[in-house]
Amino acid sequence: xxxxxxxxxxxxxxxxxxxxxxxxxxxxxxxxxxxxxxxxxxxxxxxxxxxxxxxxxxxxxxxxxxxxxxxxxxxxxxxxxxxxxxxxxxxxxxxxxxxxxxxxxxxxxxxxxxxxxxxxxxxxxxxxxxxxxxxxxxxxxxxxxxxxxxxxxxxxxxxxxxxxxxxxxxxxxxxxxxxxxxxxxxxxxxxxxxxxxxxxxxxxxxxxxxxxxxxxxxxxxxxxxxxxxxxxxxxxxxxxxxxxxxxxxxxxxxxxxxxxxxxxxxxxxxxxxxxxxxxxxxxxxxxxxxxxxxxxxxxxxxxxxxxxxxxxxxxxxxxxxxxxxxxxxxxxxxxxxxxxxxxxxxxxxxxxxxxxxxxxxxxxxxxxxxxxxxxxxxxxxxxxxxxxxxxxxxxxxxxxxxxxxxxxxxxxxxxxxxxxxxxxxxxxxxxxxxxxxxxxxxxxxxxxxxxxxxxxxxxxxxxxxxxx
Length: 468
Prior knowledge:
43% helix; 6-stranded antiparallel sheet; 2 domains; Jelly Rolls; Rossmann fold
């Protein structure tokens, strides 16, 4: 697909449903849409995935006039508004990460979340790049020099590859040879010398240090531990300045963790965006992104999500399934095997002794579970049986249900989220046990008082009779 935006023809690779939420993928310096290709099949399972060729790169036209990060940002903001009326998810690599962060800063209303992979933050690239790559790039600003560099480059490919490989990839990188050759072909695509030079300077002139605190958009930042292109000192800036950012460092990865360590990188992105858990092979269908967003907002006030960030609530919401029950409908029977944790979203759950088939006189309403509260903790933990009958309340109820398998898989994929869930479930269970114990003690005290009162009345009556 291609789009005409502000007079510039932009090419994009698209996958996913056209009516789904937009996920805009933005590649880095000297690349094309292919730079984010390992993530496209995953992201397209829920989103309308649009991976662009930035102007001047791949199959897109050059900008009219000099290339800057701000011009890229403005153009992509127009593209988002052309494609959707709702906020988009941005996924950016390297320079694409710098563009994504700037777009979230300048157009926050257009961006719901961002995923940044080895983003350029300061614009100050590694010493390796500055010593061995920068000189030839700077020459390409000039047409004659660019022609000379392009003419001699084919004879220097082996030398260039030996220089670039340690700058881009970890020593124990698992990138395939096919992917490596494609990325290198993009990096030396003919006719792009000028845009490579312009964007190199654009990154250096677009320092984000001291500005990251302005970004309120929830963001996941992934960095290769052996990145020798955008050094880890920029990750330190992110950690210091960016509030509520989810920063992950990936071992055995350089500047391309999604190619070098795809399993762990895909796991992080899937967990953050609430996508199917690839590692656990749970093939249940996913919920629409708008349903997930509403559920994540509701969960902020629930027992299970106390103290969680928006990103964590979104991950959990994406693994829940919504169930709606009419008033009085039986939700679960006593002694029924179950491994579902239930979160009341609307209405109430009534907990009854006995069943609907028993004599109504013998049934007793034990308790009710209201919006934000959870039930089913014990059977979730031990995979046991329900201890009482559950029915929808007098106005019915809407529940969010998560299975034991999904919760365990989510905890395995995201230990921090797993710890928060377990703590909140334990806290809720402890409060419920304390309340039950208090109620039982109150009933015992009342019974004892009644018995003592009856005993006292009997004694007085006895005394009156004797006097008479």
